[in-house]
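> example.struct
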């Protein structure tokens, strides 16, 4: 069976403009200005819609195993498809943590059986994510892990991080570093600055992040290992990474939509749905993030999807855990970044498709071109909808967008040519 996607405005690395897409056997067979169906193909009319490659979210927390009350693979992967994400990677801070081959295999096996979005698994750097002893990274690679990270916690011991980088280098997989100096974070709840003083909230200084970024850059220089810095949020971090790239150090990094869309000022209402780690940036830091995204210092866009149950978030700001739910709103948040900041749509799309696909060697995806898998997102930029808890597939309703009117809507998500999300059917 062949499907013809007709009249959409493509925005991808290879194509930009109005094109028809012919899909057969799960792949893109042909792209042309006009393909006529003559009744031979199933036709989907997408005129007035944007067509993106299926998005790739390299930083999510799906909570399984151990925290199924927050999220399960089933709800998380459905939230992904609703948000236009067809490929995503999950972090290993589960209970037990993903620090051995059995747990990697469990997640990969289960996600295959669910047959929703494609799941990639990131293994822990250290056993139990305790930062003391290296996990068996070789075994986890054999089981299918695509990178290593203790995300949620830093690897505080520099010697352990050095050894981890040396091993990962041999295995040819990147280390994703959660850069934080816990002594400096000192149990704080928001970014240090004028607003933390004004709101009377115990703060986290910006250098709690950049000091660790600096250390890891030096370890990447020493070992030659590909370092990927998770959720960069400060001007100082960005400036260190920019210089490291100039120096030829194999480093990449990501920014979350949260840090592009909100600043510390937004915490005036003490809304725990905006409490996140690293904390929301100051205006000055946020401007540095925009600039770094524009000049390519920041490589990729991620959600850092961190779902929590209502009883965990509906508490005083100081007692709330860090994290924002994001998968359901992936395409919407990307569009919002474009609308608010005026950053070229193609550039943002590439940072969430083509570039992560290249970094993680994901073949045949992350682009719209002939021969690639037909992972596509159909998005209507004019439709509006109200984001209510029940409209989100994720169990985590902890997003500042809840209750808000949102412009732009994912109409259909296709994975390997198959409709896996359809707004009309819900
Ligand atoms: Zn993190």
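> example.seq
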């Amino acid at each position: 069976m062949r499907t013809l996607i007709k009249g959409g405005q493509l925005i991808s690395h290879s194509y930009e403009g109005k094109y028809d897409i012919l899909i057969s056997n799960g792949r893109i067979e042909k792209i042309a200005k006009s393909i006529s169906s003559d009744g031979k193909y199933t036709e989907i009319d997408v005129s007035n819609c944007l067509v993106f490659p299926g998005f790739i979210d390299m930083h999510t927390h799906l909570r399984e195993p151990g925290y199924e009350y927050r999220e399960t693979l089933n709800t998380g992967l459905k939230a992904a498809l609703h948000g236009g994400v067809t490929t995503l990677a999950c972090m290993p801070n589960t209970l037990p943590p993903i620090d051995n081959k059995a747990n990697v295999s469990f997640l990969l096996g289960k996600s295959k059986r669910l047959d929703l979005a494609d799941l990639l698994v990131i293994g822990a750097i250290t056993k139990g994510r305790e930062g003391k002893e290296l996990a068996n990274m070789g075994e986890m690679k054999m089981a299918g892990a695509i990178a290593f990270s203790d995300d949620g916690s830093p690897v505080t011991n520099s010697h352990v991080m050095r050894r981890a980088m040396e091993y990962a280098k041999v295995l040819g997989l990147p280390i994703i570093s959660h850069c934080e100096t816990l002594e400096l974070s000192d149990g704080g709840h928001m970014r240090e600055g004028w607003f933390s003083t004004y709101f009377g909230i115990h703060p986290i200084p910006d250098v709690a992040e950049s000091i660790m970024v600096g250390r890891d850059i030096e370890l990447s220089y020493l070992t030659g290992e590909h370092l990927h810095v998770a959720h960069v949020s400060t001007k100082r971090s960005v400036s260190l990474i920019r210089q490291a790239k100039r120096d030829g150090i194999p480093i990449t990094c990501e920014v979350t939509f949260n840090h592009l869309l909100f600043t510390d000022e937004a915490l005036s209402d003490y809304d725990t749905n905006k409490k996140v780690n690293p904390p929301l940036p100051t205006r000055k830091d946020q401007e540095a993030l925009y600039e770094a995204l524009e000049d390519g210092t920041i490589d990729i866009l991620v959600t850092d999807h961190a779902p929590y149950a209502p009883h965990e978030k509906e508490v005083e700001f100081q007692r709330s855990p860090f994290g924002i739910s994001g998968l359901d709103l992936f395409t919407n948040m990307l569009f919002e970044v474009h609308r608010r900041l005026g950053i070229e749509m193609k550039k943002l799309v590439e940072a969430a498709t083509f570039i992560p696909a290249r970094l993680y060697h994901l073949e045949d995806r992350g682009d719209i071109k002939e021969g690639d898998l037909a992972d596509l997102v159909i998005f209507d930029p004019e439709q509006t909808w109200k984001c209510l808890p029940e409209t989100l597939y994720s169990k985590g309703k902890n997003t500042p967008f809840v209750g808000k009117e949102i412009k732009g809507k994912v109409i259909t998500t296709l994975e390997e040519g198959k409709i896996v999300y359809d707004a009309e059917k819900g």
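> remarks
The chain has two domains: 2-51+371-422, 54-359.
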